[in-house]
Amino acid sequence: MGFVTTDDDIQIFYKDWGPQDAQPIVFHHGWPLSSDDWDAQMLFFLSKGYRVVAHDRRGHGRSSQVAEGHDIDHYAADAFAVARALDC
């Protein structure tokens, strides 16, 4: 677990479980959830040998609580920042 800093200086919390060289599955939650809502699914796929990644969208969970950037472009850029940082 850790944080990735986006291009607009927002801290995005993520979970990254499993072997780094395994096939990744990336989970992206909707409003008003957080990465914690994927735990059961993540544990299932982890038990099957996958690498599982989930993040908290900006303004959700443990990510930066901001009033701006709650649109599909920012959410997609945030997810890309996590995928790029974790190489998955």
UniProtKB/TrEMBL annotation:
Pfam families: Abhydrolase_1. The lineage of its organism: Bacteria, Pseudomonadati, Pseudomonadota, Alphaproteobacteria, Rhodobacterales. Gene3D superfamilies: alpha/beta hydrolase. The keyword Secreted does not apply. GO terms for molecular function: hydrolase activity. The keyword Metal-binding does not apply. Keywords: Hydrolase. This is Alpha/beta fold hydrolase.
